[in-house]
Amino acid sequence: MSAALGLERIGAESMPRAASLLSTEDLTVRFGGLTALNRVNFAVEHGEVRAIIGPNGAGKSTFFNCLTGVLRPSSGHIRFDGEDITGASPDRISRKGIARSYQITNILPNATTLENTRIAAQSRRHGWSLLTHHRAYRDIIEKAEEALEAVGLRGKAGELAANLSHGEQRNLEIGIALATEPQLLCLDEPTAGMSAAETHDTMELVRRIAKNLTILIVEHDMQVVMELAQRITVLHYGEILAEGTPSEIQQNPRVLEVYLKT
Amino acid sequence: MSRRRTTVYWTGFCVILALLIMAPLVLPEFWRRFLTEILIWGLLAMSSDILIGYTGMVSFGHSAFFGLGIYGAAAALLSVSPPSLLLALLSGLVAAAAAAAFVAYFSTRLRDIYFAITTLIFSQIFYVIIFTWTEVTGGENGLTFSRPPLAIPGLFSLRFAPNTLHWFVLAVVVLSYLLLRRITQSPFGMVLQSIRENEARTRAVGYPVERYKMVAVMLSGLFAGLAGVLYALQNQFAAPDFVFFLVSGEVVIFNVIGGIGTLVGPIVGAAFFLLLREGLSRFFTEYYLIFVGLIFIAMVIFLPQGLLGFARRWLNH
Chain B: residue nearest A124 by CA? Predict the structure, then answer.
């Protein structure tokens, strides 16, 4: 009995299951004296929609920055699709199949909406072609148009990204991420600053794309989280406080104490 | 670009090209030389536009690439007899590309003002080396050499008459323009513009930004070197002054006056600047630079998009 328990412990914590698309092992980030993430062990399975919640300063953005290579963790490991990607550069991680949308809109404002997704689609190949006009690569333009279609911006393809509404720019964020054909999509507060109607549309959008993708979503809007996510991870002061289905999280006394009630 | 704009563009291109081809037949000797020189400085400015206008990196090191193009050509013309145009071209381009690769390796890790300063420092290092290494470079006095014939070995050989030199320079500049234009429209060029617009985002969608920047600097340096070779052919001397950072500063000014991110703009800027300097220096002798400065300040304030940007907006209205 105890031996079986011990094995299970090892299986669950030190050795990430082979099936997990993404897993972290004792992931730690320190900024000087501040520990932003403390030995986080975390795993996302293929096809899952996972939400990460937590009060401000819980380490959600730091966690995303580690996954996407913007920050190098102080210690610990990140595995993605069977490969150790700890400390890899953002461009390599993107090519491995992790895409990200940003909390603060991060697009090419002076390019057209289509060019925003086209440049993302182009990164998978053809980036070094020097003497062919970029419009000659029809396949890339088609991919870029598909990405716009998926986020409902096909009709605005020729518009300058800067001229889109806030909500449309937020969706373009997701479109850019989709155009890189990721396996894992990390959404950082996709509905930030949106009206109720726009939030509803974006939730529908995430639900649609979740059919073919694994999604990791940081969100403040509890209603969005509870409706979208299959499982929720609660971060608090850089540590995992709880993990479970939305109903489990809603009933977890510790979570209620630090987060939901405040 | 819409169909109509494409037609307008190519019509304008052909008209200007025809004028530039015919110009040496009607212009007096002084102005023919002047026009050839504008084309050469224009090519240098255009090469730097790849960085300033398309990638968003301001280089203050183009004098080094230009100068190494001149000295590279000089080395080939002085050491091989009879002097060969092809060898001069090759040697100038290799020298400039090597310098560009060296500068690119170190400078592209830095951004904005730090990139600009690094390129400036490297170009000054090249200047000091060329200025002090008298046995090889002639030091302060520079080098003089003779012009090679316009030749393709085994096919033909032609002495450079003043007109043929102008046409040769024109052909090289126009081909470079078409090539650079195509590069800026290529997938690679679109990545450079994406880096200019949003570097972090470009990296996040999967581009190794530093490598793209390195290639951009090398390409830019290569065409600057080509301008250097043309300058060596035109003037038949090399001097350390061309490696000095003032030349780099003028190149940036050509870009700003003409309109960055347009390729043609920098040529227009070079023409405007050189004509202005020529005109003003006749009236105001050594004080002409004060007026050049005043006009430049006024243009930056009132025509921030440069002459070409202004002309475009005016045409669209």
Answer: B206
CATH of domain A17-97+182-262: 3.40.50.300
Structurally, at CATH architecture level, domain B3-316 sits in Orthogonal Bundle (1.10)
CB B115 within 8 Å of CB B106: no
**Interface A-B: count of C-beta contacts within 8 A:** 89
**pLDDT tens digit at each of 317 positions of chain B:** 577 888 888 998 999 999 999 998 899 989 999 999 999 999 999 999 999 999 999 999 999 999 999 999 999 999 888 888 899 999 999 999 999 999 999 998 888 889 999 999 999 999 999 888 888 888 888 888 888 888 777 777 788 888 889 999 999 999 999 999 999 999 999 999 999 999 999 999 999 999 999 999 999 999 999 999 999 999 999 899 998 989 999 999 999 988 888 899 999 999 999 998 888 888 887 788 888 888 888 888 888 888 888 887 777 76
CB-nearest partner of B186 from A107, A108, A134 = A134
Domain extents in chain B: 3-316
Q: CA of B86: how far to CAs of B170, B178, B190, in Å?
A: 17, 21, 32
Kindly report the nearest CA distance between residue A180 and chain B, in angstroms.
Answer: 7
Q: Which residues of A touch B55 (CB under 8 A)?
A: none
Domain assignments of chain A as residue spans, ordered by start? 17-97+182-262, 104-181
For residue B82, whether the previous peptide bond is cis, meaning omega lies within 30 degrees of 0, is yes
CB-CB contact of A27 with A14 (8 Å): no
ipTM at complex level: 0.85
Residue written as token pair 């950082």: A188
Helix (H, G, I), strand (E, B) or coil at A38: strand
